[in-house]
Design goal:
Keywords: Cell membrane, Membrane, Transmembrane, Transmembrane helix. Its main location: membrane. It is found in: Cell membrane. It comes from Streptomyces lavendulae subsp. lavendulae. The chain is mainly alpha-helical. The chain has a single domain, classed as Up-down Bundle (Growth Hormone, Chain: A), CATH 1.20.1250. 84% of the residues lie in helices and 0% in strands. Helix 11 packs parallel to helix 15 and helix 15 runs antiparallel to helix 16.
């Protein structure tokens, strides 16, 4: 396949070794960061956007719905496209479109162009997991795939850190538009890096026949359901955490943005650690356990209203537990995907995750509009609990099926 041929060339090129593997991992991590950076910027800069553009909390949530609704709709086709065109073309396209979307967000005079730019940003989100997962399967030995997957998935949380701390601080000096345009320029530089660092892809393959590949089945269907509820809760936290800090806890915009950064740092460490721990026989139970921890994280966020320091503990716990669940689900896909299906299966699980991102914030926004953040965090807790129930049901069924096969 095109992806396997290109990434094999990366691994087998003269001088390939630890240094080249680290550069490949860094590039994949960077691609994951830019693929979802707009989400975290909209959350971290939310208080400024609400004030300057006259957005309501409900419209702020709608930006997330538009972006991730687009990503969910495009993800199945994105997985097939990655299989056809190869990782170099896919990653360059991802980074260039990310740059254009961020530039348009920075230029938006109101909600109309802002929503259009966010919709455009759904394209790189749809490409990110299939392209990076295919690259790992082709170029990384099985024993190291969990660790590399955790590292590249942590790129999403590095994006959260960048949005919540340096870019939010930059917005204090240059304004929020200047901060977003700076991120756009960085995405273009990353695209140039990908163009130079990756070998040329083989010729584009002919389109495979359209069959049942758009329909999740078996483990993929269960993980897509888990990801739907998990994504709904995470997106609500990402979108409204900074606004909650400003409006309910009396924080300034920069400290409130730092909450998103704290979540991002915890997510980086959590994704790396839990992905390393996700070995066959143990990985099947981790999504449910992480979802249970996420329920506790939502409770801590709710407790921030009477006891403000708890909001910091809650932000960290969301990163350690909820955010890490997505990385573990991707490890499971790579461990169990049928030959030639890794990209498509990754895309279908990601589609569930993105659908949750589209659904969660508008529901939370209705509560935030009236200042009922406590009820909003209860909703998030229920979403995380539902994710845990789906994950545990699948793990039990999977263990019984495995026992039946070995009996």
């Amino acid at each position: 396949m095109a992806a396997e041929g290109t990434t094999a060339a990366i691994a087998e090129a003269p001088g390939a070794g630890d240094g080249r593997a680290r550069r490949l991992t860094a590039l994949l991590t960077c691609a994951m960061a830019f693929s979802m950076l707009q989400l975290f910027l909209l959350g971290a800069l939310g208080p400024r956007l609400v004030e300057e553009l006259g957005l309501s909390p409900t419209v702020l949530g709608l930006t997330t719905t538009v972006g991730f609704g687009t990503a969910a709709a495009l993800s199945p086709a994105g997985g097939r496209m990655v299989d056809r065109v190869g990782p170099r073309r896919s990653l360059v396209l991802l980074l260039v479109v990310s740059a254009v979307a961020l530039a348009l967000i920075g230029a938006a005079p109101g909600a109309g162009l802002l929503l259009g730019a966010v919709a455009l940003g759904g394209i790189p989100q749809a490409l990110a997991n299939p392209a990076t997962n295919k690259a790992i399967l082709a170029a990384v030995p099985p024993a190291r795939r969990g660790a590399v997957t955790g590292l590249k998935q942590s790129g999403v949380q590095l994006g959260a850190f960048a949005a919540g701390l340096p870019l939010a601080a930059l917005a204090g000096g240059l304004g929020w538009r200047g901060a977003v345009w700076t991120a756009s320029g960085a995405a273009l530089l990353a695209g140039a890096w990908a163009l130079r660092a990756l070998p040329a892809d083989p010729p584009v393959r002919s389109a495979p026949p359209v069959g049942t590949s758009y329909v999740p089945r078996g483990m993929v269907a269960w993980l897509a359901g888990f990801s739907l509820f998990l994504g709904a809760g995470i997106a609500s936290v990402n979108t409204y955490l900074a606004l909650y800090g400003v409006r309910a806890l009396g924080m300034g915009p920069t400290p409130a943005g730092a909450l998103v950064a704290a979540l991002g740092i915890a997510g980086v460490l959590g994704r790396i650690g839990w992905s390393k721990a996700a070995r066959p026989g143990r990985a099947e139970w981790l999504p449910g356990l992480l979802a249970c921890g996420a329920v506790g994280a939502a409770a801590l966020l709710a407790g921030g209203s009477p006891v403000p320091p708890l909001v910091w503990a809650g932000a960290v716990a969301v990163g350690v537990f909820a955010v890490s669940g997505n990385a573990v689900s991707m490890v499971l896909v790579m461990q169990r995907a049928a030959p030639g299906r890794a990209g498509q299966d990754s895309a279908l699980v990601a589609a569930g995750f993105f659908a949750g991102f589209a659904v969660g914030p508008p529901l939370f926004g209705l509560l935030a509009q009236s200042g009922r953040y406590g009820w909003g965090w209860l909703l998030v807790a229920v979403e995380f609990a539902a994710a845990g129930a789906v994950a545990f049901l699948w793990a039990v069924r999977d263990r019984r099926a495995g026992a039946g096969r070995t009996a």
